[in-house]
Design brief:
With 249 residues, the protein is an alpha/beta fold. The chain has one domain: Thymidylate synthase/dCMP hydroxymethylase domain (Thymidylate Synthase, Chain A). It is 38% helix and 22% strand. Strands 1, 2, 3, 4, 7, 8, 9 and 10 form an eight-stranded mixed sheet that branches. Helix 1 packs antiparallel against helix 9 and helix 3 (69-76) crosses helix 8 (184-202). The radius of gyration is 18 Å and the shape is globular.
Length: 249
């Protein structure tokens, strides 16, 4: 059944994912409506991670033929050579890639695309501090309003880039749906790296990345998810033992 709302706030992106994944494996839960995950730990604008948890998840993703955390993150913000053809080889990316919508948003029948990232950078350089200007639109009704029962893109609808207090930066991504096994961790990383880019360009400190998901779903069998959730939570030393055993049986 649906359960929510659930709010997770951590200063480590791996711990945030682990707790969110743990929440969806609680008895009787099939989805979380909504799920809000906030990450607040950054060192020189680089998000804090727990490599053991990331490696644990990547191994499980590879074993099931899923996209790696790095591949999912690159659909939002590539940190190496931009290669959309490599990303499109995965079925879930065949209808589009988020970063493409950010740098070349082109509704059907439009004569030219819009580079939204360039616009955001330029409008701040022009000393325009209107917060409603700092939005990256992903959903395109001219292309995305279809009758397909399952489309897979775009789950991310919009990203808000919010300078705050003159020195800090907050990023918020809004998702219609999100799968917590294959996509969530990579999405969190991608949003963090997008925030890091803007923080660097504007000389700000990235302080918060928030992912708001209207419907968070579990995309592997519950028995397997509970094993993975226990393993991830056990890697977080400060989590009480009573929580790690909450899903037994």
């Amino acid at each position: 059944m649906s359960r929510g709302p659930v709010v997770v706030e951590r200063d480590n992106v791996a711990h945030a994912w682990a707790e969110a994944f743990h929440e969806i494996t609680r008895p009787g839960t099939t989805e979380i409506v909504p799920l809000v995950v906030c990450v607040t730990g950054f060192d020189a604008n680089v998000v804090r991670e727990d490599q053991d948890i990331r490696n644990l998840l990547d191994v499980e993703l590879l074993a099931r033929g899923k996209q790696s955390i790095r591949t999912v993150a690159s659909t939002i913000f590539p940190t190496s050579l931009w290669n959309p053809n490599r990303l499109r080889k995965y079925r879930r990316n065949c209808n589009g890639i988020y970063f493409e919508r950010m740098v070349n948003f082109q509704p059907r029948d439009a004569n030219a695309g819009v580079n939204q990232i360039a616009y955001l950078l330029g409008t701040r350089i022009a000393n325009n501090h209107r917060r409603s200007a700092y939005q990256l639109s992903i959903i395109d009704p001219t292309r995305d309003h279809t009758n397909q029962p399952r489309r897979g893109f775009p789950c991310l609808q919009q990203v808000s880039i919010s300078p705050i207090d003159g020195h800090a930066l907050s990023v918020t991504g809004f998702y219609a749906t999100q799968t917590l096994f294959e996509r969530a961790y990579g999405n969190y990383i991608g949003l963090c790296e997008l925030g890091r880019f803007f923080a660097h360009q504007w000389g700000l400190q990235l302080t918060r990345v928030t992912c708001v998901t209207s419907v968070a779903e579990l995309d592997i069998p519950m028995t397997e998810a509970r094993v993975l959730a226990r393993q991830a939570m056990n890697l977080i030393e400060e989590i009480p033992a009573t929580m790690t055993g909450a899903n037994e049986g």
